[in-house]
Amino acid sequence: MGLLIMNKMIQAVVLGLFTASFAHAEPSSQVAWTPDKLNFIKQANSNNGKELAAQCAGCHGDNGVSPSPDFPSLAGQLATYTYKQLQDYKNGQRIHTLMTSIATGLSDQDMADMAAWYNSLPLPKNKAGKKDLEVAERLVSEGDGKRTLPPCYTCHGSDGEGERMDIPALAGQQAEYFAATLMAYKKGERHNDIYSRMRVISQQLSDAEIQELAQYYQQLR
Ligand code: HEC
Ligand code: HEC
């Protein structure tokens, strides 16, 4: 075997290894918060978004308040967060058969316009009564130092209203969707959280705590 061919073979093997390890370290999102991107979302046309969102109303509600416990409400959500999720579905970083195929048909402008419209609507209000949920209350306001669990409010806001860019509002969210998506982070099935923030947190929560946190946020408003 010629030296040249041998070298080429070694090169191919090394390259293959690199490609494999790069595939493993795939980024959790392709959205990067540059000033241009933030301005693009800020300048979106929410009237156009309202028209486009007619196709989403069957599942996400006429005013972004979902009629089904399994479908997330989108009303009042940060536009940047909604935009990022739609991009993540389209780019394959967040996987859900239905939402992936819907997002694939949307342009960047469509996504920004609908995100702006949903953001302009009030957060969903809870119609069921309030229960005392002490375990969840403590996790939200104090966290748990023994498990290096930061309090949820430090990121999601003291009223669950969300915080800048990719940290979503949680107040009034459908409890069943909320618990299901936390379980998906916990199992690593949802992995579009930059720096693994929600994967690390959810892995330290018991399934019962996740259920209670879901109730807590649903009844917050
Ligand atoms: C047939 C029902 C259906 C339709 C139609 C639909 N969605 Fe969804 N959507 C879902 C479900 C179910 C989920 C939760 C998927 C998951 O767990 O990842 C979801 C999730 C989302 C999320 C992520 C929410 C979050 O809190 O992370 C966004 C954003 C979204 N949809 C936007 C849209 C937009 C915009 C449209 C219309 C262009 C649309 N959806 C149409 C069912 C639907
Ligand atoms: C260090 C900041 C941080 C802390 C602390 C934090 N979160 Fe999050 N959370 C995030 C980010 C960022 C996302 C969005 C990631 C993405 O794009 O998927 C998120 C997403 C979520 C979602 C998904 C929302 C949706 O609409 O799909 C839920 C539910 C959630 N967090 C619950 C919690 C709970 C409950 C706690 C406390 C136990 C908590 N988070 C603590 C940063 C944080």
Fold blueprint:
Elements: H1 3-24, H2 35-42, H3 46-52, H4 57-60, H5 79-91, H6 97-104, H7 108-120, H8 134-141, H9 153-156, H10 175-186, H11 197-203, H12 207-218
One heme C binds at residues 72, 84, 139, 150, 152, 154-156, 166-168, 170, 173, 178, 181-182, 192-193, 197-198, 201, 213.
Q: How would you explain this protein's 3D organization?
A:
There is one protein chain. The protein has 221 residues and is mainly alpha-helical. The protein folds into 2 domains: 35-120, Cytochrome Bc1 Complex, Chain D, domain 2; 134-218, Cytochrome c-like domain (Cytochrome Bc1 Complex, Chain D, domain 2), CATH 1.10.760.10. 53% of the residues lie in helices and 0% in strands. It contains 12 helices and no strands. The chain has helices spanning 3-24, 35-42, 46-52, 57-60, 79-91, 97-104, 108-120, 134-141, 153-156, 175-186, 197-203, 207-218. α8 (134-141) packs across α12 and α10 (175-186) packs antiparallel against α12 (207-218). It starts with a helix and ends with a helix. Residues 13-24 have low confidence and may be disordered. The site of one heme C (HEC) has 22 residues, from α9, α10 and α11. One heme C (HEC) binds next to α9, α10 and α11.
